[in-house]
Amino acid sequence: MNKSSLDTDVLVIGAGIIGLAVARAISLKGKSVILVEKNSSAGTEISSRNSEVIHAGLYYPSNSLKTKFCIEGKNRLYSYCKKYNIPFNNCGKLIVATSKNERNKLEEINQNAKKIGLNDVYFLTKKQLNNIEPELKCTEALFSGSSGIVDSHALIQSFVANLQNLNCTVAFNSNVSRIIPEKKSLLTEVIGNNESIQIRSLSVVNCGGLSSQIIARKTLGLDIKFIPMQYLAKGTYFTLNKKAPFNHLIYPVPEKQGLGIHFTLDLSGKAKFGPDLEWITKEDYTTDINQRKKFFDQIRKFWPEIKEEELVPDYAGIRPKISGPDEEASDFIIQFPKENKIAGLINLFGIESPGLTSCLSIASEISSRLNEVL
Ligand SMILES: Cc1cc2nc3c(=O)[nH]c(=O)nc-3n(C[C@H](O)[C@H](O)[C@H](O)COP(=O)(O)OP(=O)(O)OC[C@H]3O[C@@H](n4cnc5c(N)ncnc54)[C@H](O)[C@@H]3O)c2cc1C
Predict the structure, then answer these.
(1) What is the block-wise mean pLDDT of the chain (374 residues), using blocks of 10 residues?
(2) Which residue ranges form the domains of the chain, and what is each CATH number?
(3) Which ligand 1 atom is at minimum distance from the Cα of 275?
(4) Cα(219) to centroid of ligand 1, in Å?
(5) Which residues of 309-319 are buried (b: 16+ CB within 10 A; e: fewer)?
């Protein structure tokens, strides 16, 4: 195996939507960046297996990073899409109660929206609902005006193209095997095609998604108490084999660790339902037609016209959770050296939804706090 070595200001690990946005934001500050990705192209893991929804930020506690980054990130993302011609649709979303006892939950979401300063969230009357979504059945619906959808694949490709014009080297097929803290830098060992590369940098940003904990455990001297437990929560999607019945995103009231099986559109107008929530112990992206009945039962609560055979298994994604099935949903973790006690090291953990919406604001936070690190 050939051996080589490189120097850079910052090494970013993982070319998912987060690593790409972080590498871009740091390069825009004039720092040299190397972005390493173990797969042969960008965004093939969590970032291409999600709902592609631009979230408004309705659901998360007011003082959480999820609220802060989602609201800020949504605005940045809409602007980015306009500037770089990324397909998006600010179509709005309806959260629906399908029984009287779900009404309180909708009111809670409405109150939370007001508290965090969202002024385009309100209840619709029966008449308004019937005008905009005649096929929808519900007892009550809350409208969110700033929710929308984005073509996540186009966004990923745009970030990659952006990086090529900046001071950033993107290396695919490059798997981080070890991070060794040195006196004033970090030495990262990367295994490429028949090649072992040592990259010396002032900072390493771990945006490894489902592998963030594995990468953190490969950092010599990092105390394991700073590495949160990881739980994998699979979400499967079914598509509809006919024209979409709705023009808005339709969500049920949220469940404990997820947003419930919802209706979304992609930019080509294809209707999809999901994701459900299944706790797993190993990465597994298979879909199962036997889950169709469960989807059918959930969907017909708000769309009675659906027929079970119209649902076709599509794809699955895995949420990188850091709280388990019986726990409250946790916040994003962005761990700087003052927390993890390793100079130059920034670890990201639990970047589940709304991570896609938040990518540009997470990137901005990291790039603007780099002076604490470099
Ligand atoms: C089912 C589902 C639905 C979702 N829906 C939405 C939504 O509608 N809206 C929203 O805002 N968010 C949504 N999300 C969340 C969003 O998709 C994620 O927050 C985001 O994609 C995470 O991106 P990432 O870059 O952290 O992870 P990833 O995209 O997984 O990127 C991590 C990268 O690190 C690489 N890597 C790992 N280990 C190594 C190594 N040793 N060396 C080099 N590279 C390595 C991986 O190969 C991977 O490419 C959803 C997530 C899921 C699972």
Answers:
(1) 92 98 97 98 97 95 96 98 98 93 92 94 95 96 98 98 94 98 96 94 98 98 98 97 95 83 93 96 97 96 96 98 94 97 97 98 97 84
(2) 2-48+154-228+330-372 (3.50.50.60), 93-145+230-321 (3.30.9.10)
(3) 1
(4) 21
(5) ebbebebbbbb
